[in-house]
Design brief:
By secondary structure, the chain is an alpha/beta fold. It has 9 helices and 16 strands. The chain folds into 2 domains: about 190 residues, L-asparaginase, N-terminal domain (Rossmann fold, 3-Layer(aba) Sandwich), CATH 3.40.50.1170; about 120 residues, Rossmann fold (3-Layer(aba) Sandwich). Helix 6 links the parallel strand 14 and strand 15. Helix 3 runs parallel beside helix 8 and helix 8 crosses helix 9. The protein starts with a strand and ends with a helix. This is Asparaginase.
Length: about 325
């Protein structure tokens, strides 16, 4: 049997963290070679591994520049013959990294993200099992054309749907409404759905345009909204209440913001789509759309911010091109 080639790169995260002498807590210390050495069952796979330590960062400190560097490395691996790529990072921002990379991943071969909820020094550490499963998924031809996926707890999730839904549970990663793309059982990869069309944007020459994400809350102050047109932001995403609503006070601050930048409404609920024509009161979706607010549909607030950022970078902020791209890609992400 011909061996497949899989590249494994590490950015850090709980899966790489150990305790240092006389220090409380754990921090990222392990590299790719040390991680792979701890995984039982790899010798049974018909796979050659290329290993590379990209960084040793807690996931909350990952920047766009780190992800673009990881993307460049991952593309080089596919171009030099890898069947798939595994990228290891911390779970706190893993859902955002997965979606961000999915916006730029042009290959049929899979890019698989994984991590761990328990550090290697804990009983029942899940890192080795997650890494083994991620390598199995990266090897599988069944996962081709699905773009970037997240593999955790023997489940395979699409980048557009996956979210971290619990602070510490091993089953923290879920795909609300749509469920996982597939799972791993007895070393085999099971896939439930055909590939979905994906947005694939050009890698930008600049990333200076910034998008602000605000979650609206009960009896919300409006000073930040009022100041926003004078601040250095080029887009606004609002995580609205319910199916995409804000208070009357917030609504009244939006017209000057909309004049300056695209404003997208999402839902803060964590599951389900914004609505388009259910509620007509002031601050609800009918009223907001008449003002020029764009409804995001199923795309969550954090991923909407990333999509809008990528579009701004690709169009260099050209308002007409931004709005055309938003219409195209938001339709794509809501074509179910």
């Amino acid at each position: 049997m011909t061996k497949r080639m899989v590249a494994v790169g590490t950015l850090g995260g709980t899966i790489t963290m150990t305790a240092k002498d006389n220090e409380k807590g754990v921090s990222s210390t392990l590299g790719a070679e040390q991680l792979v050495a701890s995984v039982p069952g790899l010798s049974a796979l018909s796979v050659d591994l290329r290993l590379h330590t990209l960084a040793n960062l807690a996931s909350g400190s990952i920047q766009f520049e780190h992800l673009f560097a990881a993307l460049t490395w991952a593309k080089q691996q596919i171009d030099s013959g890898a069947s798939g790529v595994v990228l290891v990072q911390g779970t706190d921002t893993l859902e955002e990294s997965a979606f961000f990379l999915d916006l730029y991943w042009p290959y049929a071969a899979p890019l698989v993200l994984t991590g761990a909820m328990r550090s290697p020094n804990k009983a029942g550490a899940d890192g080795p099992a997650n890494l083994l499963a991620a390598i199995q998924v990266a090897m599988s031809p069944k996962v081709r054309n699905h773009g970037v996926v997240v593999v955790m707890n023997d489940e395979i999730h699409q980048a557009r749907f996956v979210k971290k839904a619990h602070t510490v549970s091993l089953a923290t990663f879920t795909s609300p409404v749509f469920g996982p793309l597939g799972y791993i059982q007895e070393g085999g990869v099971r896939i439930f759905r055909a590939p979905s069309e994906r947005a694939i944007l050009p890698v930008p020459s600049q990333t200076s345009d910034k998008v602000l994400l605000i979650e609206t809350v009960l009896d919300e102050a409006t000073e930040l909204y009022s100041a926003l047109p004078s601040l250095n932001y080029q887009g606004l995403v609002i995580a609205g209440v319910g199916s995409g609503h804000v208070s009357e006070k917030v609504r009244d601050t939006l017209p000057p913001i909309i004049q300056k930048m695209p404003v997208i409404m999402t839902s803060r609920t964590g599951s389900g789509s914004t609505t388009n024509a259910v509620y007509g009161y002031k601050g609800a979706e009918v009223d907001l759309q008449q003002l020029g607010v764009i409804m995001a549909g199923f795309l969550c607030p954090r991923k909407t911010r990333l999509l809008l950022s990528a579009i701004l970078w690709a169009t260099q902020g050209n308002r007409q091109q931004v709005e055309q791209a938003l219409q195209k890609y938001l339709h794509l992400y809501n074509a179910y």
